[in-house]
Amino acid sequence: MPSSVLDITTKEKQFFLDFQRGENFIFNYFFDKYYQGLCVYAFRMIKSNSEAEDLVQDFFVRILENRKNIFIDRSVKSYFIRSVHNRCLDYLAHQKVKINHEQIRLKMLSEEDVQEYPLLDSELKKQIELAIQKLPDGIRETFMLNRFDGLNYQQIAKQENVSVKTIEYRISKALAILRKDLGDYLLFLLFVSRF
Questions:
Q1: What is the pLDDT of residue 154?
Q2: Which residues neighbour 68 within 8 Å (Cβ) at sequence distance 6 or greater?
């Protein structure tokens, strides 16, 4: 190993010891130096930018909280990479468990459950129409003007004599209610199909 690398490794290990002793400002040095690279490393493993960032941010939070219990025998860099690597493996294992759980749940559906699932256009249409009718007054009208009449938020705000922010709130509220009643799949169908 070149002496310059050894020098950096030794310096960073000393920095980390100082950080463990209460020199909190040193945390910024490690965060600024390694955060972006660790996010790229995590992304290459789990293929999700937002999850990679969350995972690395959580890693640094743990470093901050548990610094007194951390022992670094080789280098700070190798410790950081190994820790993020292990977190990525845990994340992937958890995703696999979630997928397996969903597969088991689907396998356990009874014949009655399967038969009751709305598959025909008429059944889908009826379920969507019922969910829309259950929306509160005002929210329902705003949602229908946007979804079925094709008006944008500005046009609806002008027509209903309210602010654009009010329209944004109503549409957001309608989507939240419909997602709860219909689930993401049927909500998706509502926006890709013309019933």
A1: 92
A2: 20
DSSP 37-85: HHHHHHHHHH--HHHHHHHHHHHHHHHHHHGGG---SS-HHHHHHHHHH
Amino acid in the structure at residue 158: K
Domain ends where: 48, 78, 107?
107
Instruction: At 29, list the tokens.
Output: 């040095």
Q: Which two tokens stand for residue 68?
A: 């007194």
Range of the domain at 28: 3-107
CB-based contact 72:16 (threshold 8 Å): yes
SS3 134: coil
Do residue 137 and residue 86 come from a single domain? no
State pLDDT tens for residues 29-57. Answer: 899 888 989 998 999 888 888 899 999 99
Q: Does one domain contain both 72 and 132?
A: no
Return the exposure string of 166-176: e unless at least 16 CB atoms fall within 10 Å of the residue's CB, then b. bbeebbebbee
Q: Where are the beta strands (DSSP E) in the chain?
A: none
